[in-house]
Design goal:
mainly alpha; 2 domains; 64% helix; 0% strand
Length: 418
C-alpha cells in the first residue's frame, strides 16, 4: 500500500509540474490580447477582476466600463451574481501571486474531485487511488484546459456531483452542491431539471434558495454603484450578447464547443439558427428527463443514483446547452464507474464501446488550435479536417448519451420500479 501511494504521488507530482511548467511559459499579461500568452486568462477575466470590480463598487456586467477600468480582454461571461464571490479570497494578494495561488487551489481541487468521484462510484477511497485518479484527470485534455486557462469548472463539477450523489442521504450537502453548480446556469439549469425528474424537490428548493440569497445580496451590492440609465438587466443582456458574438463561442465556428447544437451546426450545410439550437437542446433534455423519471427509485428506496442515471444527467447537461471542452470533466463519474466495473453493462462489447465513448474526450488532444487552427486555416489538411477534429468530442458525447438512455430503458422494461 505504501509503495502504490508513493508511485501515485510521484505520478501526480510529475503531471502537476509538467502542467505548471507549460502554464508558466504562456502566462498572460494583463490587458494584452491572448496570443502566445494565454495561460490563466479565464482566471483573469472571469474570476479575479470581476471580484475586484465588486469590491471597488463597480458593475462587472457593464462590459464597456469593465474593459476600460480593468486589464481584461473579454467581457464577463453570463455567470449569476452569486458566483462572482469566488474570486474574493484571491484579492488578498496582487494578481501575479493570485494566479499562482489559484493554480495550486486547482491542483488541490483535482485531488478532492478524484476522492468525490471514487465516493459516488462506491469505491473505497485511499490515498493511492485518489492521487492516481487525480493524475489521470489532470493529464486529460479537459483537466489540462481547466488548469492552464484558470477555468472555475472544478467548482461546478464538484457541486453537480454533490447534488446528484448525496440528494437522498445528505440533502443539505446536496443543496449546497446545487447552489454552487447553479451559479453557472449552463450547469445549474439542467442539473435542477434532472433532480426534479428524480423527485428531489427538497434538495432543489433548498439549493435554489441558497442561490437566490447569494445572487440577491451581490446584486444589491452592485446596485449601489453608479449604474447607467439602461439598468442592470439591460447591461447583463448586453454582456450576454457580446459573449455569444465571439467566434470561439458560436456554434458553427467554435473548435471547442461540445453541445449537440454545435455538432449540428458543423454538420448541417449553412449551419442552423438560434431556434434550431434551442429545439435541439430542449429535445435532448426532455429525453433525459423522461428516462430519469421512469427509472427513478420507488418511494421507499434509499439509494444514491446509479451510474446509468448519473451518465444520463451528466451527458444531457453537456449536450443540451452551451458547453466548452473543459466542461467534459463532468463525465468522469460514469467513465470511472465503467472502467472499474461499478457500472455493469452486458454484453461485454457494449460495455467496451460505451467506455470508449466516455474515455475518448479525455484522450482527444487533436481539437487544439495548435493542431488544427481556425476554420479554413488548418495545418494543410483542409476544412473537413477542422470539422472532424471539432466534432469528435460532441459525437462521442452524443453516442454515450444515446447508449446510456438505451441501456436504462431496457433495464426499466425488464425491472420496472415498484
Amino acid at each position: 500500500m505504501r509503495t502504490s501511494t508513493l508511485v501515485a504521488a510521484l505520478a501526480f507530482a510529475c503531471v502537476t509540474l509538467a502542467v505548471g511548467y507549460r502554464a508558466e511559459r504562456h502566462l498572460n499579461v494583463p490587458g494584452v490580447a491572448p496570443g502566445d500568452q494565454w495561460a490563466m486568462m479565464d482566471f483573469r477575466d472571469a474570476v479575479y477582476y470581476p471580484a475586484r470590480a465588486l469590491l471597488d463598487g463597480n458593475n462587472p456586467y457593464d462590459g464597456p466600463s469593465y474593459l476600460r477600468t480593468y486589464p481584461v480582454v473579454n467581457e464577463l461571461a453570463p455567470y449569476l451574481p452569486g458566483g462572482l464571490v469566488l474570486g474574493v479570497p484571491f484579492l488578498l494578494v496582487p494578481y501575479e501571486e493570485a494566479r499562482v495561488a489559484y493554480f495550486l487551489v486547482t491542483v488541490a481541487l483535482m485531488v478532492a474531485m478524484a476522492a468525490l468521484t471514487l465516493r459516488v462510484c462506491g469505491i473505497t477511497t485511499t490515498a493511492a487511488r485518489c492521487l492516481a485518479l487525480a493524475a489521470v484527470l489532470l493529464a486529460s485534455r479537459p483537466g489540462q484546459m481547466i488548469a492552464l486557462l484558470g477555468q472555475p469548472t472544478f467548482f461546478y463539477v464538484i457541486g453537480a456531483y454533490l447534488a446528484l450523489g448525496f440528494a437522498v442521504r445528505r440533502p443539505w450537502l446536496a443543496a449546497c452542491g446545487l447552489a454552487i453548480c447553479a451559479s453557472k446556469p449552463s450547469f445549474g439549469l439542467p442539473m435542477t431539471a434532472c433532480l426534479l425528474a428524480r423527485d428531489q424537490r427538497t434538495v432543489v428548493a433548498r439549493g435554489l434558495a441558497l442561490t437566490a440569497a447569494a445572487s440577491i445580496a451581490v446584486t444589491a451590492w452592485i446596485a449601489r454603484a453608479a449604474v447607467t440609465q439602461r439598468g442592470l438587466l439591460a447591461l447583463a443582456a448586453d454582456s450576454y450578447a457580446s459573449f455569444t458574438a465571439r467566434p470561439m463561442n458560436q456554434a458553427s465556428a467554435s473548435l471547442f464547443r461540445v453541445d449537440a447544437a454545435a455538432l449540428a451546426a458543423r454538420l448541417v450545410p449553412g449551419g442552423i439558427g438560434t431556434r434550431e439550437e434551442l429545439l435541439i437542446g430542449v429535445a435532448v433534455l426532455v429525453v433525459a428527463l423522461v428516462v430519469l423519471r421512469r427509472s427513478r427509485p420507488s418511494a421507499h428506496a434509499c439509494s444514491e443514483p446509479t451510474p446509468a442515471a448519473a451518465a444520463i444527467a451528466c451527458t444531457a447537461t453537456l449536450l443540451c446547452v452551451y458547453h466548452q471542452a473543459y466542461d467534459l470533466l463532468l463525465i468522469a463519474w460514469p467513465a470511472v464507474a465503467l472502467a472499474t466495473g461499478r457500472w455493469r453493462v452486458h454484453p461485454r462489447w457494449v460495455c467496451s464501446v460505451l467506455l470508449a465513448t466516455f474515455a475518448f474526450p479525455f484522450l482527444n488532444y487533436l481539437a487544439t488550435e495548435t493542431t488544427v487552427g481556425a476554420p479554413g486555416g488548418t495545418i494543410g489538411l483542409g476544412y473537413l479536417w477542422w470539422i472532424a477534429a471539432a466534432s469528435l468530442n460532441s459525437l462521442a458525447l452524443a453516442i454515450a448519451f444515446a447508449g446510456s438512455v438505451a441501456l436504462t430503458r431496457r433495464r426499466v422494461a425488464a425491472f420496472p420500479p415498484a
